[in-house]
Amino acid sequence: MRRAAILVVDDEPGIRELLSQILADEGFSVTTVASGEEALAAVSREVFDLVMLDIKLPGMDGLEVLRQLKVGGKRLPVVMISGHATVEQAAQAVREGAADFLEKPLGLERVLVTVNNVLERAQLAERLQEEEEDVELTGVSPAIVELRRQILLAAPTDSRVLITGPNGSGKEVVARLLHRHSRRAAGPFVALNCAAIPAELIESELFGHTKGAFTGAVEAKRGKFELADGGTLLLDEVGDMSLLTQAKVLRVLQESRFTRLGGATEIRVDVRVIAATNKDLEAEIAAGRFRQDLYFRLNVIPIRVPSLAERREDIPLLVETFMAKLGKRMGVKPKKVTPEAMEALLAYPWPGNVRELRNLVERLLIMVPGDEVTPADLPMKLAETEVFWPGRPLPLKQAREAFEREYIARVLRACDQNMSQAARVLGLERSHLYRKVKALGIKVDGGTGES
Ligand SMILES: Nc1ncnc2c1ncn2[C@@H]1O[C@H](COP(=O)(O)OP(=O)(O)OP(=O)(O)O)[C@@H](O)[C@H]1O
Ligand SMILES: [Mg+2]
């Protein structure tokens, strides 16, 4: 992490020197000023992480400076410095938003502990704020407006919701919004990615375990169901649970109680379960990989998140939003996308949906040197927007074949040669796409064909 910058405001030269020394020795970058007026000027010029502010100052006093700093909801933390006579005012300052106060004489230890605590708290608050910001459903397309309407209808009901949609389309965002707009909003939101956890560990993740329940269980651990008590549990990638785990989850959903692994006591919980998947669960049921009874339990309110290709009109707004948000986080100025480059973004099939768009914007912010993104700055696969023309007049049947060959090859490139993903984009069964690729003589290189 970069060195935190601290502004020290005190009219006594001795205190300025003492604090400079203590803080500089600790590796902070320190600026000192002698009055409130100078402090406000410094803050408008430079970025600080913390202000140490004397209460008794000539001219504008510390409390007034604090109020000025807090106008506009600035998150800059302020530590007040008080003399013996001003402790009451210091307490008042804390009520008005100061992070903490220190009493003179200033001891080295106290100063460092206070400064480090306040900085740590401020960083935590910023991280939480960043997470908050991520829970946003950007878009004005009819598909997104409809999605928002469904979220607001479903959220307060406490019913189970099954969220389906392709990779990176925003399923987790939807789950978080359902929680935030429910009567459980003050309770925990806990997510478990069922695909990321080995089958033999998923039960202990869900239900917890007692000490010694299995090799490696050196301590008792609470499971996600317990952690989510009073709140919402997201079973993410729910289509990837083994049939055995499905049976156990089904039992919890039926009875609202379970036991920890190795434990005897039944635990009761009040949890709203939301499930998400990018699989077609009905197809999984037909294939014998997903329990139908569990499906019916989970799928009380179905919500389908549209792919980005279904709501292309949101692309410019999403680009702008990510430019601003990521730019701010990275400390980089947002870049303008030229109309030609935007045309390419609008034409691209976006197999990775909003996540792919977000990653692209992040990459552009880092890689493009100027203020403007032109088509030349885009990855190759994104620049292929011209409509295909076979080069000479052909009978329709041959032209159609030529177009299909070119188009399927482009979509495969966009999907990094992943057959399953390309099949989804094209709206074909995977086996059908295989036959086409073979019949049209399209070369598939590098791809595994797996999803
Ligand atoms: N409508 C949206 N507006 C703004 N950001 C969005 C939107 N939809 C998704 N995102 C962002 O895109 C990224 C992917 O979203 P999310 O993780 O919710 O997708 P997902 O459908 O759960 O993906 P996966 O199938 O890979 O689990 C996140 O960074 C999320 O914040
Ligand atoms: Mg997800």
From TrEMBL:
Tell me the organism's taxonomic lineage: Bacteria, Pseudomonadati, Acidobacteriota, Thermoanaerobaculia, Thermoanaerobaculales
Q: GO molecular function terms here?
A: ATP binding; sequence-specific DNA binding
Where does the Response regulatory domain lie? 5-119
Q: Which residues carry this modification: 4-aspartylphosphate?
A: D54
List where in the cell it is found. Cytoplasm
Matching SUPFAM superfamilies, A to Z? Answer: CheY-like, Homeodomain-like, P-loop containing nucleoside triphosphate hydrolases
Pfam families recorded for this chain? AAA_lid_14, HTH_8, Response_reg, Sigma54_activat
Biological processes per GO annotation: phosphorelay signal transduction system; regulation of DNA-templated transcription
UniProt keyword annotations, A-Z: Activator, ATP-binding, Cytoplasm, DNA-binding, Nucleotide-binding, Phosphoprotein, Transcription, Transcription regulation, Two-component regulatory system
- Record's superkingdom? Bacteria
Q: Does the keyword Transmembrane helix apply?
A: no
> Where in this chain does the record put each Sigma-54 factor interaction domain?
137-366
SMART domains from the xrefs? Answer: AAA, REC
UniProt name for this protein: Fis family transcriptional regulator
Q: Which PROSITE patterns match?
A: RESPONSE_REGULATORY, SIGMA54_INTERACT_2, SIGMA54_INTERACT_3, SIGMA54_INTERACT_4
Q: Which GO terms describe its cellular component?
A: cytoplasm
Q: Which Gene3D superfamilies match?
A: 1.10.8.60, 3.40.50.2300, Homeodomain-like, P-loop containing nucleotide triphosphate hydrolases
Asked if the keyword Transcription belongs to this entry, the reply reads yes
